[in-house]
Write a structure and sequence with these properties.
69% of the residues lie in helices and 0% in strands. It is mainly α. Helix 6 runs antiparallel to helix 9.
């Protein structure tokens, strides 16, 4: 338990990791790719979100896949670079900041994505084996419920618990905070799930 709050990183390095991660995470790949493809502003269709799910609503699966990959890898890159140069704590801060940058990009009036891809990208950078756990949980819940949003919500809830039990308290703490923020960003999805009006996987319209 003492390790959980015993962070050794200096303030200047922590701030540098925070700024670096945020700027990297705030790159709106969904918006950039759809505009480059001549599809206009992704924020004007569907949910208005810049993430892969909304990009998929353009009908371009390749762009959606590219958005998913790039949104994930920007958090992975931030975490790995921070970790490589300044240690685990800097990596955790940089990856977390990339997650925040994706959700609240300064360039877009702090209106970004919901962060599932970036959450997975963070895992890939700091605890790569947990990506498999996330995928197994997502697939299991999706098979039973047919709800993509519910699958992501359950997976993000389980990840910090597993990390805690395998004795990765600092990573568990950061991922728990990210889970809480992700749930807040999924507020409308949660409301629709409760009301029974959330779209199911493969559902048209």
């Amino acid at each position: 338990m003492s390790e959980l709050f015993n962070w050794q990183i200096t303030l200047p390095i922590a701030l540098a990791a925070l700024v670096f991660g945020y700027l990297l995470g705030s790159i709106p790949f969904g918006l950039i790719l759809t505009r480059a493809a001549g599809l206009g502003d992704i924020r004007s269709i569907g949910s208005g979100n810049i993430g892969a799910t909304n990009v998929l609503r353009t009908g371009n699966r390749k762009l959606a896949a590219a958005t998913l990959l790039l949104d994930a890898l920007k958090a992975t890159a931030a975490a790995l670079i921070g970790w490589y140069f300044f240690g685990e704590e800097a990596g955790l801060i940089a990856g977390f900041a990339a997650f925040l940058g994706h959700l609240f990009p300064v360039w877009l009036g702090f209106k970004g994505g919901k962060g599932v891809a970036t959450y997975i990208g963070m895992l890939l950078g700091v605890a790569p084996w947990m990506v498999l756990v996330f995928a197994l949980i997502w697939l299991s819940v999706a098979k039973l419920s047919k709800y993509s949003s519910l699958s992501a919500l359950v997976a993000t809830l389980v990840i910090p618990v597993v990390l805690w039990f395998i004795d990765e308290p600092k990573i568990a703490l950061v991922m728990a905070i990210m889970t809480a923020i992700s749930w807040v960003k999924h507020k409308t999805n949660i409301e629709r799930l409760i009301a029974g009006t959330e779209s199911r996987i493969g559902q048209k319209g």
